Amino acid sequence: IHASDFMLSCQLSPLGRIEQMQRLTTQQPQGQNQFQYWQQFICDFCLNIDTKQLNDERFFGEVTACALEPVEIATIRSTPVSVQQTKAHIAQANERFFKVTVQTDGVGVLRQNHQEVMLKRGDWVFYDSTEPYELAFPEPYEQLILKIPAAMLASQIPMVDTFTAVRFPQD
After folding, report:
1. What are phi and psi of 5, to 5 degrees?
2. What is the pTM of this model?
3. Cys-Cys crosslink for 119: which of 13, 69, 90, 108, Cβ 3.0 to 4.6 Å?
């Protein structure tokens, strides 16, 4: 499966609600290794990242996503994993974007630019696609992710680069 097969343009109703989203879950593949299936999709969707399962328990993962061009929106939830984007991955990318991530359940740790932040339910953070990063989820988690072109976000938030890997708490 490829991200291009998964991502759909969201259709908005006359009231501005998203009417069409695509869902992918590791419950779908019959007879496949659930984590390998997850790696194939997530690595493609997130543009060249590595993922590792953090325990030996049965793996579960789910992504619900759509694109409201030029922004992509996704909800991701899974059992414990780590995610890493390296300089080698970045060299293969062709567009700079920011991810705005809201931790909606569980906890996560983001490391980028020599900073480390712990995200709890309701916290949110920016991270930059042109800098290496690592995310770790030691327990089952859920996140809402907005993938926004850098130029678009920078036009709305001056000096957005200074806010990467900074935790914005829910309260």
Report:
1. -75, -25
2. 0.81
3. 108
User: Letter for the amino acid at 149?
Assistant: P
- Asked if residue 138 has a cis previous peptide bond (ω within 30° of 0), the answer is no
**Per-residue confidence at 109, pLDDT binned at 50, 70, 90?**
very high
In the block, tokens 């909800």 appear at 75
Instruction: Please give the Cα distance from 3 to 126 (Å, whole number).
Output: 22
DSSP string, 39-97: HHHHHHHTTS-EEEESSSSPP-EEEEEEEETTEEEEEEEESSEEEEE-HHHHHT----E
Tokens of 77: 């939830």
